[in-house]
Each structure stands twice: as C-alpha cells, then as structure tokens.
Amino acid sequence: TYNGSVISVVENPTDGYDATVDYDALNGETITIAATPAPHAEILEVVKTILADKGITLNIQVFNDYVQPNTALEGKELDANFFQHEPYLLDFNQENGTHLVAVANIHYEPMGVYAGKSASLDSIPSGAQIAVPSDTTNEARALQLLEKIGLIKLKEGAGLTATKNDIADNPHQIRIVETEAAQVPRTLQDVDFAVANGNYAISAGVTDKVLVKEDSSTKYGNIVAVKEGQESSAKTTALVEALTSDTVRQFIVDEFGETAVPMF
Length: 264
What we know:
Number of strands: 15
Structural class: alpha/beta
Helix content: 25-40%
Number of helices: 8
C-alpha cells in the first residue's frame, strides 16, 4: 500500500493465503497469464503441466517490457501476470491509476552490476558510464546497489524513488545512463558497467559478466499479480497453489541456481 509518498511493501504476500481449490469447478477452464521470457515464462511452463493434469489450461502470453503486462491485466485481458516485484507494482498503480495487487511471492532475482567496456570495479575510470533501469523503483534499486559498493552516495531519505538527481557524492564522476529495463544488458558494449534486473540478464545471456549482486531481499521478490477483487478467485487460488508447489521450487533451484531463488 501507499502511505503518502512512501511505498509500504507486504513482506510476503503469500502468508495467510488460502490454497483450497475446487478443481471440479475449474475443469475445462483457461487461466491467461502474462510473463517476461526468463525465468518467468520458463517457470510457468512447469505450472502449465501441473494445471493440465487437473483439467486446467494455462495460456502464457510473453511480453518483453514492464508496462504492457500491467495495462493488459487492468483491462481484464488477463487473469494474472508474473514478472515484477511489489515496489514496482505499487509505483505503477500510483502513476497509472491501476488497481492491481500481489497475491504470491515466488522467487527473488538479485540485481547485479555487470561488466561492460570496463572489467573491474576496483579500477573504475573517471567519468565511467553506468546503465541503470529507467523506471522509478528499479532505478532506485540500482542506485542503492551502487551506493552499497561505495561508488556513489545518495541524498539522505532518497529511498525507493531515488533517481540520478539524488546522487549527493560522486567521486568518480560516474555518468548514469537511464535505459528501459529490458535493454540494460544490451548496452554493455557501449557502457563501462550496467546494473540489470536478473530476468533480463538471463534473457541476454550475460550472467557470466556479473561482478557483484544484491543481498537477498524479500522486498524485491517476484510476485503473481491480479486485478483487485480477484485475490481469492478459483483461478487465482489454483495458479498460486501450482506456482508454490514442491515441483516448481525444485525446478527453480535446478534450473537457475543463484540467479533466481525460491521464496516459498
């Protein structure tokens, strides 16, 4: 929820969730869900098999950005989406007047600093260019990571809405290059470093270039989101039960290792 301009994040949206499912009523039904390609759509392929065994079709629609999956969900073109963390969702609601809610925390993808034209953070050149996501919460998250490793210092209280304008101390004269999140890993040939979301680093095949990652944080767990009012619907409940199954947990562990960590 929002408290004025401060984002308040539910620590784990799955806590207290009622996973009782009437599969007889859902037999022959289709659940339509949006996801970004990796790891989300790959995880959902496992879910698709689980639900198919119960007579439910999972229709996975793959998007390559962070906007369309939310606008489509708001427009009732989808039953759910799976691609974002809750701070992003709350900021999106605030900025766009949408009414979307988190119903389950599935996995955490550490944001990382990736090597581009420069190979080491120990010898960062003056005026180095660092690409970061341009959307509000992910830019703030990237800048907080740069602050944690000592490259910059942010203004006190900048928080989850920090932008490059909130940099208070910049001893290396770093130039922050704000880039659409999906494109950040693809800028590595043009910038010294990039701070990228894990899913887009996987899709771009650059996970071997990571120099440092965030510590684990439930705040940035990737969630299943639905339109407000559908939190306890039969479709939502069946989807969450399948996504938080032991089968899915093991798939995430085996397939993605430290790149995507289960949170259930």
